[in-house]
Amino acid sequence: MSITPTTLTRGAAVAAILAGLAYVAIQFIHPADVIESLSTQAWVNVHILSFAEAVLALIGLTGLYLFQVRKVGILGLVGYLMFGLFFILQASFNFAEALIAPLIAVNAPQLAVDFVGLFGRYPAETDLGALAAVPLVGLILYAGGALLFGIASLRARVLSRGAGILLIIAAAVTPLSALLPHTLERMAAVPMGLALVWLGYSLWMNTRTNTARHTPTDSARIAAS
């Protein structure tokens, strides 16, 4: 099998779809951010899945950006960089949650709880230093990046307009979700996951259309020969 730009773009489309589906599923199976959860296999499994989701999302986002790079302009570039940095941050945090936090919990349970509860909206008893800024930085990169990338994609008119609108809505409701209880706040991530699925599907369909458009017909092949 030869590796072509179309093959890589389709791979990115599949990555975006899988990332979106995983992102939605995670919200329903995520254990509570408490010390008892850290010693369970469910905690490790969910955060390994979250790590994989972040990596897939970064791959998918890169394919989405490159497919429309000539039309999204500076706005699209800034949105891509912000949104992409969020997924890098998420992957790093999920890696630590899955493999490091359970080890810390043995000798420093309060530190472990404060670390995994950074996004749980309760004051930490441990001095986490610069880590305390992670939720705010993550929110800016996540909501701001998705909003800018959605607007740029909408203006580019390359991918599905509906998917672009859903991405914008998902980004806009994210800050408002902080007004909800933490258990319900997770549900605000569902529209974002669905937007990634839709964008990935739109990218896949666009590659099929472009391939069909540029594939010569049998008669053209005969004439060329």
Layout of strands and helices, then pairs:
Blueprint lengths: L4 H25 L11 H27 L1 H31 L1 H7 L1 H8 L17 H23 L4 H16 L5 H4 L3 H26 L3 H7 L1
Word description of this protein:
With 225 residues, the chain is an all-alpha fold. The chain has one domain (5-116, 132-210). 77% of the residues lie in helices and 0% in strands. Helix 1 (5-29) packs antiparallel against helix 2 (41-67), helix 2 (41-67) packs antiparallel against helix 3 (69-99) and helix 6 packs antiparallel against helix 7 (161-176). The longest helix is centred in the middle third of the chain and has 31 residues, at 69-99. The radius of gyration is 20 Å and the shape is elongated. The relative contact order is 0.16.
